[in-house]
Amino acid sequence: MTLLDLNDVSKRFITEKGITRALDDIELDVKKGEFITIIGPSGCGKSTLLKIIAGLDTEHEGEVLLDGDAVLGPSIDKGFIFQEPRLFPWLNVEKNISANLPVTKEVKEHVRELIKLVRLEGFETAYPKELSGGMAQRVAIARALLRNPKVLLLDEPFGALDAFTRAHMQEVLLDIWQKNKTTMIFVTHDIDEAIYLADRVVIMNARPGTIRKMIPVGVTHPRKKTNADFQKIRQQVLTEFEQVEHGKSLAVSHS
Amino acid sequence: MSNQAGVLSRRTIDEKELALKRQRKQSITSYWVRGLALPASIILIWELAGLFELISATLLPRPSEILAAFRDLIVSGELFSHFTISLLRAIGGFLLGGALGLAAGLAVGFSKRTEQTLDPTLQMLRTVPTLAVIPLFILWFGFGEVSKILLISKAAFFPLYVNAFLGIRSVDSKLFDVAKVLQFSKWKQITTLILPAALPNILLGLRLSLGGAWLALVAAELMGSSEGVGYLIMDARQFSQTSIVFVGIIIFAVFGKASDSFVRYFERRLLKWRENYIG
Ligand SMILES: Nc1ncnc2c1ncn2[C@@H]1O[C@H](COP(=O)(O)OP(=O)(O)O)[C@@H](O)[C@H]1O
Ligand SMILES: [Mg+2]
What we know:
The structure holds two protein chains of two kinds.
Chain A: E1 2-15, E2 18-31, E3 35-39, H1 46-54, E4 61-66, E5 69-70, E6 78-81, H2 93-98, H3 105-117, H4 133-145, E7 151-155, H5 163-180, E8 183-188, H6 191-197, E9 200-205, E10 210-216, H7 228-243
Parallel strand pairs in A: 3-8, 3-9, 6-7, 7-8
Antiparallel strand pairs in A: 1-2, 1-4, 4-5, 9-10
Helix pairs in contact in A: 3-4, 6-7
Chain B: H1 2-51, H2 63-76, H3 78-110, H4 112-126, H5 134-141, H6 145-169, H7 173-181, H8 186-222, H9 229-238, H10 242-270
Helix pairs in contact in B: 2-10, 3-4, 3-6, 3-8, 3-9, 5-6, 6-8, 8-9, 8-10, 9-10
Magnesium ion binds near residues 46, 47 and 155 of chain A.
Membrane topology (chain B): Multi-pass membrane protein
Family (chain B): Belongs to the binding-protein-dependent transport system permease family.
Keywords (chain B): Cell membrane, Membrane, Transmembrane, Transmembrane helix, Transport
């Protein structure tokens, strides 16, 4: 069942320096509950694509349908996780998660469950300055999940974290996905991360930003990065990248 | 044998700890000693110089005389009534000017259109020194309370205006994106995002406003009044009661500092979430 449907989505940025074709004829269908990762060289339009899906950027061509309805602006249906956690520094963990929602008994209960889900018990009343980068990003994820989004959009959410924290965050996110069955669209520039998480890896080209290839990852969870099937897909993705012109800036982590 | 060694080391640890404690105690004492040594010796020399009539008592009365004058003023109840009057003026002017300044700063901060209509005029008025408008205020409102309160209000208005405005405009635009994605209502955006983000600046404005109000109070009372600490000083000057002049000055200084500490206390409590807060 299709949840998200992108038809002929194109986006141009017009500046004094000229026209950037950030996205060109993007066609993408995302099934309900699917975990999509998007990978591509920097500047290929990954963030632009996520912002369009989120409704943060509505000046584009083509249409974006969520559950059959056109996306006209941002809403809590589309949870967004930025690269930085972007917490409110003056609110503690609990209040950052509930944010603008009235603190009813129901909300309180849900917040408590989510704090458990993102493994932050004991930090309910801590302020953002007391949290590590990974913890803060987990608060941001809980904040989005509290609104029961139909889809969670994540723009290189673990990009700023060290390797260990990153691996832990991947586990947490997979755990959330398996428990909540939230549809995920996850942008990364780490090939292993992309394969490790995804049902389907979307590889993009730069200038103009297009979808180069989609590679399904049929490996069952829990996955092992050393597993032969995993390595085979990794080779496939790497081969694609060797052909990508602007692929130099792509980070390939060796693990 | 091992037991003995254990006892031995235990004792050395205790001794070390004691020594450390003693050292810490000493350092606290020496902190005070070092800080108070200079003022204490100045006061002592001053007192002695007065006693041996090395300096004129009308120019510089001895500390003990100032203390005696202070005591007399308290006993007669004079000090209390003058001080109350001064305090009421300061509070009245501060509340009027500060509230207007805060309101104008918020209004201009929230709306580009209000900014365009209001800010250029206010910025122009801001450059007029408070002391320079005293003669005008006296002409318009006389020597009464109105001109004093208005003078204090003018001084309290601008720091809060400027800082509230600045605070609202310096909210991190990245957090506005978050507010959009979470579908904040306009009201929630103001109460949960903009005002808390602007609070550090608003509190700074509050402190500066209080300081300004206090300075203006002194100026207003010195320009002519029949009550208040400023009047006490001017009156004492006419009769060369220098000790009382000193008492007045000390009162202004102590309360200026006290009001500042009061706001800083709130700052510490309200801004404990801040990354860079030291203290
Ligand atoms: N606001 C903007 N104005 C002009 N050009 C932009 C803007 N945002 C992005 N671009 C351009 O669009 C292209 C895609 O950007 P982006 O989506 O941020 O790439 P990615 O996230 O894949 O690194 C880049 O070439 C970038 O320079
Ligand atoms: Mg990006």
